[in-house]
Design brief:
279 residues; mainly beta
């Protein structure tokens, strides 16, 4: 028949100190217990036990004082699976990288009390595209090597590392940002032979790392024998040019022409050079 009594909870044979008094009319009970953060993941034995009466038992006093008399102790067991939170700690990640460069990420997967988790699979995403999976080693460590695509968008790009969870381990994720830059290629075309007072055109093209990646409105500094002639700007087809008249104080023979493209936005600096012959 239903009765009021103190019911206690033990986990894996250890009394937790949690208890509740059952309803005197229905005998029902509901006990709430907060699992400690250092509880290991996996299966655990939960036991609800009733210690019996207080005075009319042997030995006397083993039961709770508020328990009804003339009742012996009893218990019931149940196994439960406990899953624990996880976290991903990145040891090295983020920064600047060029298209076609190599991204390197080092990290470790831990549970909530910093136990490393081995043989777990993580997903690697870059610019909202899934790249690959990686598996943690015996110490929970993982390492990612990834060549940046040659046509990757420039600027800040998000990389996400996602653990989708496994048996007894809850999902977690983290992210880091990479600044993607592009190399610049400058081409220079010079007249083969010129004379003093000739009007010449120094010209060429400028593009990014792609064969047809022409850069528009890109500035280039043009120098003759180290002296700045001016700044040229590329058109929509990546073509740039600058006109100049050979002064009469220029000596005959070979002269150096340098073209320098300073870093602009997400484009690296670049340069090229050539020579012209003044006859």
């Amino acid at each position: 028949m239903p009765s009021a009594g103190i019911l206690r909870l033990s986990v894996d044979g250890n009394d937790t100190g949690a208890f509740i008094e059952s309803n005197a009319t229905t005998g029902t009970y509901s006990l709430m217990y907060t699992v400690p953060s250092d509880t290991s993941a996996g299966s655990h034995l939960l036991t609800i036990f009733f210690r019996g009466g207080f005075m009319w038992v042997d030995p006397i006093g083993q039961g709770d004082s508020t328990n009804p008399e003339y009742y012996l102790n009893s218990s019931v067991d149940q196994f439960v699976n406990i899953s624990v939170p996880t976290k991903i700690v990145l040891l090295s990640a983020g920064g600047d990288v060029d298209r076609e460069g190599l991204l390197i990420i080092d990290g470790t997967l831990f549970d909530i009390v910093d136990n490393p988790l081995s043989n777990q699979t993580l997903e690697i995403w870059f610019d909202n595209t899934r790249l690959t999976n990686v598996t943690t080693d015996s110490e929970g460590n993982f390492q990612v090597f990834f060549p940046v695509p040659q046509d990757s968008p420039l600027g800040p790009q998000m990389m996400e590392i996602i653990f989708t969870g496994s048996t007894f381990y809850l999902p977690s994720e983290t992210n880091t940002s990479w600044n993607v830059y592009s190399a610049v290629n400058v081409d220079l075309t010079l007249p083969l032979e010129i004379a003093i007072n000739d009007e010449i055109i120094i010209q060429g093209t400028v593009r990014d790392n792609l064969p047809e990646g022409w850069l528009f409105n890109h500035s280039l500094e043009v120098r003759f024998n180290g002296t700045l002639l001016g700044t040229a700007y590329s058109d929509i087809n990546g073509v740039w040019s600058i006109e100049w008249t050979i002064p009469n104080n220029i000596g005959l023979g070979s002269h150096a022409v340098e073209v320098y493209s300073p870093a602009q936005g997400w484009y690296r600096e670049a340069s090229t050079n050539g020579t012209i012959w003044v006859a």
